[in-house]
Amino acid sequence: MNLYTYCEGDPVNSWDPTGHWQEGDEELPQWAQDAIATYTSWYTTGDSELKEMAHARAELVRSFIKDGYYQSRSDWGAKPANEDMEQISGTRADYYDTIVIHHTDRSQNENITDFQSDVLSGVEFADIPYHFVIGADGTVYEGRSLNYEGAHCSVINTGKTGIAVMGNFQPGNVTLGNIIQGALPTEPTPDQRLSVIHMTMFLSDAYGVNSIGGHRDYGTPGATQCPGDSLEALIPYLQRFITK
Ligand SMILES: [Zn+2]
Fold first, then answer.
1. Distance between CA 33 and CA 44 in Å, rounded?
2. Burial of 210 (0-12, 13-18, 19+ CB in 10 A)
3. What is the tally of structural domains in the chain?
4. Are residues 52 and 129 in the same domain?
């Protein structure tokens, strides 16, 4: 069926009745396809307001990727992981129920390949511990695939998607390592804020999450300052995207 058939001869005044899936969507990253699958179900079951939102969000996820805000591992030239990682159990939608926001506590302008090389040269992680890493210009880099459990939340990673924003967003957090690394405390850039908002919305739509928080909000209280006060301040806004 082509678009014209969908619109029953009136493409200007008709919605695409599926509200979602378009040719080319199969090329999108898996998480974006998962989000569009949700928009499809909204479209199929929802009232006219939800149908409009489904249409708008599907367009948003497509343009986010088309405009170059997302780079998959192959786009940015990721190296393979050091060792096998744990595959998630069940489907991504069954598995993920939480989105955790981090700062990298490193330079805001770090190159993603340098970041990965540094992780791979250590012994702690098999690969980038987060599922996504957001650079200073708002580019979202794929970290470890969502098909693998994250390693960003101590021993309680099950069900948690990890999004890290490059930079040190904790006022007063000045360690020797931070000085050497050029990671003095700063603020998330406007582009970083926009990208973390977009990704939180898309992932929440894709998987249906019941919790969104900063790293400090999970596990032992006081164990970490991550994601820093300046980024934690965004959490109440992000929590409006909780879907279940
Ligand atoms: Zn963290």
1. 16
2. exposed
3. 2
4. no
Distance 54 CA to ligand 1 centre (A): 32
Give the distance (Å) from ligand 1 centre to CA of residue 113: 19
Which domain-ending residue is among 67, 91, 113? Answer: 67
Question: 123 C-alpha to center of ligand 1: Å?
Answer: 18
44 is in which domain, residue-wise? Answer: 3-67
What's the gap in Å between 22 CA and the centre of ligand 1?
36
Measured in angstroms, how far is the CA atom of residue 196 from the centroid of ligand 1? Answer: 14
3-state secondary structure of 199: helix
On whether the CB atoms of residues 209 and 97 are closer than 8 A, the answer is: yes
Write out the chain's pLDDT in tens, 244 residues: 344 444 444 444 444 545 567 888 999 999 999 999 999 999 888 899 999 999 999 999 999 999 999 999 999 999 999 999 999 999 999 999 999 999 999 999 999 999 999 999 998 899 999 999 999 999 999 999 999 999 998 889 999 999 999 999 999 999 999 999 899 999 999 999 999 999 999 999 999 999 999 999 998 899 999 999 999 999 999 999 998 6
